[in-house]
Design goal:
Blueprint lengths: L4 E4 L11 H16 L7 E4 L1 H9 L8 H16 L2 E2 L5 E2 L1 E7 L9 E5 L5 H9 L2 H19 L4 H15 L9 H19 L7 H15 L3 H9 L8 E7 L10 E6 L11 E6 L3 H6 L5 E2 L12 H4 L1 H18 L3 E8 L2 E9 L4 H13 L5 H7 L12 E2 L6 E5 L1 E4 L2 E7 L2 H9 L4 E5 L7 H6 L2 E4 L7 H9 L3 E3 L5 E3 L4 E4 L2 E4 L3 E5 L4 E4 L4 E2 L5 H13 L3 E5 L3 H9 L5 E5 L7 H12 L3 H25 L5 E4 L13 H11 L3 H11 L11 H6 L1 H22 L5 E5 L5 H22 L6 E6 L2 H5 L1 H4 L5 E4 L1 H9 L10 H6 L13 H18 L4 E4 L7 H9 L4 E4 L4 H12 L9
Helix pairs in contact: 4-5, 5-7, 6-7, 13-14, 13-18, 14-18, 18-33, 19-21, 20-21, 21-25, 22-23, 25-26, 29-31, 32-33
The structure holds phosphoenolpyruvate and magnesium ion.
The site of magnesium ion (MG) has 5 residues, from α29.
């Protein structure tokens, strides 16, 4: 018999924290908290395996599930002394989803399940509080009606709004038991009209309805989108947690809240959270009432902290904070309820945090001795470092404040105001910077939030949906800007008599919560403090070298600042496009004979030499790999008539000649024609000029700095040994000439890109000629897949969406195919030359999963764009510590 159901609480703890894959995060941690003696209401978890079995079996449950659920329900009844469905002493339960990783987008929670026209009377008698009983009943119908039965939640809100109007009150809490009773009656009529059947009164029917809704929500479109964005496989499934209710809405000695053991925005080691007196969980998250701070220190005038309102429960909560941090050794995100001054824990999990907070918490926990430095290095997601590289507002820049909200997620963003998520996605796809403006967000807005540069909401607290999701995504967010009003109909936001319309630019500062009209100048981030500390620790454990792909002095300097240990790829063709050079390049292309080409190349030489001298100077003493010309020549010719005429005038030819030459050079598939070493072989003078510029530049830099650089000359698009032999001979000859002329020689290497399948297959032979291999995984992906780099975007997203490919292979290396080629070439290369130096310089060099693969096959370095260098340093350290490719597991 398969065990589908695991109990927790009241002495029956069948789960543990490390059973997250089976019990989901919520279920595993509830069991763990109960085991370490924290006050957890008893309950049970239906496993993720059941979810998978349910889908495998045409959405039917296994026969033995019912008996297991009944048995576990019996354990809860025994523990709390109440019975499910009992008219006098009814047990009420909550039903929540809980996947392996927390996943907004799925069914969240149904509270107060088990209430019906009879049991509500029992609850009223047992609690002695009619308002509480009827308020709980209407909440149940509302939640169950919307999340399980699919009735639009506005229909419920309308009924409450009318009730409040009739009663002449503003706050929900001012409604009397009789009012709630009337609301319940109206709810039931409305639900029956909507679904064509009465609201279910049988608690067991209610329970199975809610369980079915959780499993059903695993495959809803929102959950599917979220999974796609976060690489979560559909096969993981969700668990369902059923737990005895405790009530935060029984009066002034009751409350509910959410908190973090440290500040999730900054990482500061202070207790951080919000609570509401006399409320149930959804009130905090939904932003209907404004939550109050936990500690007195954080309370503003007019706010009453939990420390003051419920001092003994607060003291208990502070103790729980200590216990949980010491037990889990990580910052926790906690949900709790206080019923008649007694504290109950409803959830704990590793708290989502900004990258800045993640760094600070890891560093401070290591410094406090809670974890060691290696563990600290493992704790920070390399991809999240991107957030710290976000610009912030220039403090000196002029600005016009429009309004203010909560600083929900740091970083600054400017963009046009857009009021709905579909439009945000559409405009951003066209390249526009947008700021998504909503009264509040829901899981339906995930795609819009993802597309937006920043998010502004006018309702909700620091733990509202918008705040939590934006932090997770690394989007700047200002939440709960109550002074700003949003009118979706008119497409405006207004504050203090001023109005901003859709399409006008606004700027957000997620660190202060300020909102500005218009754009505000920004500055680049600095990387000191915790960032530098953690990077230092990462550097101590990583084995892979980190280089950068750079050709301009600015890029090279940026990369050095970020810790690059050399240049792994300098694409020399990028140096050909500057206005004072492109004319000369075109002269070379248009020349009819060798003499004409040489004359043009002679003019290019000083430019290239100066470029290389700059790079060698900036990279002072570090290796610099310079790739000789790669793209086909037509890429340097213009396409429009007016520009062709300019080239004709500049080269003294008529436009027809230019047009003819452009036509001659054009290629059907420009990526696989007359390019790379094929150019170097047919026009040896081009590579000769470049080699001369490199060696002259290197000697100039050596004289200037007193330290000779070691240039690494790299030949692109090699597919045979002979090609490398010919081009290498050219380079060696130029080197000898230059060293003789200058009276000085320096060390240098000549190597090759490995970016074609044939080069992989004969890598042992190519290695006889090469001093190093650099894997050009962009072209290798293109040629191994037979998939044009420039046309892949037309269908790859559909492939990834349909699960045909797990990820875009141009972003993250296809380990199975392209990776196998890289491994094979590396093995063959080493078979010829044991210590052959090897690195990767395709886009994959900055992707954490691909870096883990490079570590696995023992490459020497990865090379990536300057802004990815910190990401690569950390990813390489984690790879050395054995953190695998799958970051979501
Ligand atoms: C590659 O092909 O991976 C590479 C680095 O070169 P490029 O992108 O310039 O073709
Ligand atoms: Mg290439």
């Amino acid at each position: 018999m398969t065990k589908w159901v695991y109990s927790f609480g009241a002495g029956h703890n069948e789960g543990r924290a490390d059973m997250r894959n089976l019990l989901g995060g919520k279920g595993a941690n509830l069991a763990e908290m109960a085991t370490i003696g924290l006050p957890v209401p008893p309950g049970f978890t239906i496993t993720t395996e059941l979810c998978t079995a349910y889908y495998d079996n045409d959405r039917r449950y296994p026969d033995d599930l019912d008996a297991q659920v009944r048995a576990s329900l019996g354990l809860i009844e025994e523990a709390v002394g109440l019975r499910f469905g009992d008219a006098a002493k009814p047990l009420l339960v909550s039903v929540r989803s809980g996947a392996r990783v927390s996943m907004p987008g799925m069914m969240d929670t149904v509270l107060n399940l088990g209430l019906n026209d009879e049991t509500v009377r029992g609850l009223e008698a047992a609690s002695g509080d009619a308002r509480f009983a009827w308020d709980s009943y209407r909440r149940f119908i509302q939640m169950y009606g919307s999340v399980v039965l699919g009735v639009d939640h506005h229909r419920f809100e309308e009924i409450i709004e009318n009730a409040k109007l009739d009663a002449g009150v503003i706050e929900d809490t001012a409604l009397s038991p009789q009012h709630w009773q009337a609301v319940v009656a109206e709810y039931k009529v409305m639900v029956e009209q909507e679904r064509g059947a009465p609201f279910p009164m049988d608690p067991h029917e209610q329970l199975w309805g809610a369980i079915g809704a959780v499993f059903g929500s695993w495959m809803n479109p929102r959950a599917n989108t979220y999974r796609r964005l976060h690489d979560i496989p559909a096969t993981w499934g969700t668990a369902v947690n059923v737990q005895a209710m405790v009530f935060g809405n029984m009066g002034a000695d009751c409350a509910t809240g959410v908190c973090f053991t440290r500040d999730p925005s900054t990482g500061e080691n202070t207790f951080y959270g919000e609570f509401l007196v006399n409320a149930q969980g959804e009130d905090v998250v939904a932003g209907i009432r404004t939550p109050q701070p936990l500690s007195r220190l954080r309370a503003h005038p007019g706010e009453v902290s939990m420390e003051e309102a419920l001092p003994s429960a607060y003291a208990d909560l502070v103790a729980v904070r200590e216990t949980l941090e010491h037990h889990y050794l990580d910052m926790q995100d906690i949900e709790f309820t206080v019923q008649q001054n007694k504290l109950y824990m409803l959830q704990t999990r590793s708290g989502k945090r900004t990258a800045a907070a993640s760094l600070r918490i890891a560093v401070e926990m290591a410094e406090a001795g809670l974890i060691d430095r290696r563990e600290a290095v493992k704790r920070v997601n390399p991809a999240s470092l991107d957030q710290l590289l976000h610009p912030t507002l220039d403090p000196k820049a002029p600005r016009t404040v429009f309004g203010k909200g909560l600083p929900a997620s740091p970083g600054a963003a400017s963009g046009v105001a857009v009021f709905n998520s579909d439009e945000a996605e559409m405009r951003s796809a066209k390249g526009e910077a947008v700021v998504l403006v909503r009264i509040e967000t829901s899981p339906e807005d995930i795609h819009g939030m993802h597309a937006a540069r920043g998010i502004l909401t006018t309702r909700g607290g620091m733990t509202s949906h918008a705040a939590v999701v934006a932090r997770g995504m690394g989007r700047p967010c200002v939440a709960g800007a109550g002074g700003i009003s949003v009118d979706y109909g008119a497409q405006t936001l207004s504050a203090g008599g001023k109005t901003i319309r859709a399409g006008e630019t606004i700027t957000l500062d997620g660190a202060t919560g300020e909102v500005f009209s218009g754009a505000v100048a920004m500055i680049e981030p600095s990387m000191s403090g915790d960032f530098a500390t953690l990077m230092g620790w990462a550097d101590q454990v990583r084995r892979l070298g980190i280089r950068t792909n750079a050709e301009t002095p600015l890029d090279a300097e940026t990369a050095r600042k970020f810790g690059a240990e050399g240049i792994g790829l300098s694409r020399t063709e990028h140096m050909f496009f500057a206005p004072e050079r492109i004319g000369v390049v075109r002269q070379m292309i248009m020349a009819d004979d060798l003499a004409g080409r040489r004359a043009a190349l002679d003019k290019l030489l000083p430019f290239q030499r100066a470029d290389f001298t700059d790079l060698f100077r900036i990279m002072h003493g570090l290796p610099v790999t310079i790739r000789l010309l790669d793209p086909p020549l037509h890429e340097f010719l213009p396409h429009q008539d007016s520009e062709l005429a300019e080239v004709a005038a500049a080269t003294g030819q008529d436009i027809e000649q230019v047009r003819r030459r452009a036509a001659e050079l054009s290629e059907a598939n420009p990526m696989l024609g007359h390019r790379g070493c094929r150019l170097g072989i047919t026009y040896p003078e081009i590579y000769e000029m470049q080699a001369r510029a490199i060696f002259e530049g290197a000697i100039a830099a050596a004289r200037e700095t007193g330290e000779a650089p070691v240039p690494e000359v790299m030949i692109p698009l090699i597919s045979t040994r002979r090609e490398l032999e010919i081009t290498r001979a050219q380079v060696d000859k130029v080197a000898a000439d230059v060293f003789r002329e200058q009276g000085q020689s320096i060390e240098y290497l000549v190597g090759t890109m490995i970016e074609l399948p044939r080069a992989v297959l004969v890598a042992d032979k190519i290695a006889e000629i090469a001093d190093f291999f650099s894997f050009g995984t962009n072209d290798l992906t293109q040629t191994v897949f037979g998939l044009s780099r420039d046309d892949a975007g037309r269908f790859l997203p559909a492939y990834v969406e349909a699960g045909i490919l797990p990820k875009d292979p141009f972003v993250s290396i296809d380990v199975e195919g392209v990776g196998a080629m890289v491994r094979m070439a590396a093995d063959k290369g080493r078979a010829t030359k044991n210590a052959l130096k090897m690195g990767i310089c395709g886009e994959h060099g900055g992707d954490p999963a691909s870096i883990a693969f490079c570590e696995e096959i023992g490459l020497d370095y990865v090379s990536c764009s300057p802004y990815r260098v910190p990401v690569a340093r950390l990813a390489a350290a984690q790879a050395a510590l054995g953190v695998g490719v799958d970051r979501t597991a």
